[in-house]
Amino acid sequence: MGRSSQRRPSGCLIAAHQGQAGQSLILMALMMVALLGFAGFAMDYGYATVKYRRAQNASDAAALGAAAAINSGSNESAATSVAQEVVQQNGFPSTDVTLTYLDSNGNATSNASQVNSVNAVVRDTFPTTFMRVLGIDTSSVSTAASARVAATAPCVFCVLATSGTTLPLSGNGSIDVAGGGIGVDSNSSSAVTLSGNGNITGTSIGIVGGYRTSGNGTLNPTPVKISPFPDPMASVPVPNCGSQGTTSVSLSGNQSMTINPGNYDSLNVSGNGTLTLNTGLYCITSSVNLSGNGNLVGNGVIMYFTCGGMGGPPAACSPGQTGGEINLSGNGSYRLTAPTSGTYQGLETFYDRNNAAQINLSGNGNDNYTGTIYAKSAQANLSGNGGVAQFNSMIIVATATMSGNGTFDVVYQKSQNYQNVGYPALSQ
């Protein structure tokens, strides 16, 4: 029998197998590098996307901040400082922002009085994490925004709610505004409605939506279409009421009393009483009520209507919450004037921005209110019994209604109202 034999692989075949294995290892290594590169790209790209969004917010805020500063009378250097601070608050170095101040022709200007718009560019360079394996050590994002600077306020009687009928007038009452315009931010086709014989008069009347009239009521001048406008006092700082609890004051009969600034749950005046408020800040968590033949007098006073109270300290309102409110009615009179200096110069009434309580104001001929009324989320109910309520005020509310037979007379003078009112708006 012949002996069977096994053939042994030749040396070249072994070398071929070894070469294929080596090539596979190299290919796998290259694929791993590619996969790591794709994973790193995805992660770094995601981080860059977040950075971009934050940078866009920062450039928007920087442009608006600088435009608001210019609108309030600051020079370009001060406006730039405001923008740099805003950028830092958004998590970027102040050196990341570049500002350009443009006149009405689109040319750069160093004269603050000629600035029509502000361009802000935020560019940020940051280290990568995984892309370093591909030799890419840094990445960057760049965003831009432009904000217009309004030379004049679009309204001194401003109705901020953006939908629905926000300025209805009924009966024979009238709203007369001198020294400025009426602005209505609602986009409804019936944002303003007139019924009965009442009139609405202003230096100008601008409505985002439209208006409807019935009866003999008139709007003078004829309203014009305007673009939506922002809250002109969005940057006003909230008063500090401190941690002291609240107390209440009630006067009736022929009583008279003088009180000092502080935290109050309610101030009530009825009968023939007279309540005098000394100069300063009054934080109110429930109500200020004037009825009967009472009198409410205060010079250099700011009343801040907020939530909390009932013996405890004032607290911020939640959105839509009803907090403190003011009710001035009856046959008595109110004579209130805002501070003439300090942070709140010219600001007499300030509602917490979330406070949805109402403002009820009626006039009988002896009333005088000097200073800005700012109640972003409140409805103002205006009425009268034939007299004229004199308001030397800028009035900013969510909605306003007018009824009765009286005249609600607003005579705006800038020197008697809050000064730092700005209307910058982002440009497209």
Total domains: 2
Shape: globular
Summarize the amount of helix as a percent range: 10-25%
First CA to last CA: what distance? 99 Å
Order of the strands making up the biggest sheet: 12-9-6-31-29-27-24-19-17-15
The number of strands is 32
Biggest sheet: strands, sense, closure?
10 strands, parallel
- Please report the number of helical segments: 2
Work out the strand percent. Answer: 35-45%
**Rounded radius of gyration (Å):** 32 Å
Low-confidence stretches: 1-5, 11-18
Structural class: alpha/beta
Mean pLDDT: 83
Can you put this structure into words, describing what you see?
This protein is an alpha/beta fold and about 425 residues long. The protein has two helices and 32 strands. The strands form five sheets. A ten-stranded parallel sheet has the order 12-9-6-31-29-27-24-19-17-15, with no helix packed on it. A six-stranded parallel barrel has the order 18-20-25-28-26-23. α1 crosses α2.
Please summarize what this structure is.
With 428 residues, the protein is of the alpha/beta class. It has two domains: 134 residues, no CATH class; 189 residues, no CATH class.
How are the secondary structure elements laid out?
Elements: H1 11-71, H2 76-89, E1 97-102, E2 117-127, E3 138-148, E4 157-159, E5 167-169, E6 174-178, E7 182-184, E8 192-194, E9 199-201, E10 205-207, E11 211-213, E12 218-220, E13 224-225, E14 247-251, E15 256-259, E16 262-269, E17 274-277, E18 280-290, E19 295-298, E20 301-305, E21 307-308, E22 314-315, E23 325-328, E24 333-337, E25 347-351, E26 359-363, E27 368-370, E28 372-384, E29 388-392, E30 395-402, E31 407-411, E32 425-426
Parallel strand pairs: 4-7, 4-30, 5-8, 6-9, 6-31, 7-10, 8-11, 9-12, 10-13, 14-16, 15-17, 16-18, 17-19, 18-20, 18-23, 19-24, 20-25, 23-26, 24-27, 25-28, 26-28, 27-29, 28-30, 29-31
Antiparallel strand pairs: 1-2, 2-3, 3-32, 21-22
Helix pairs in contact: 1-2
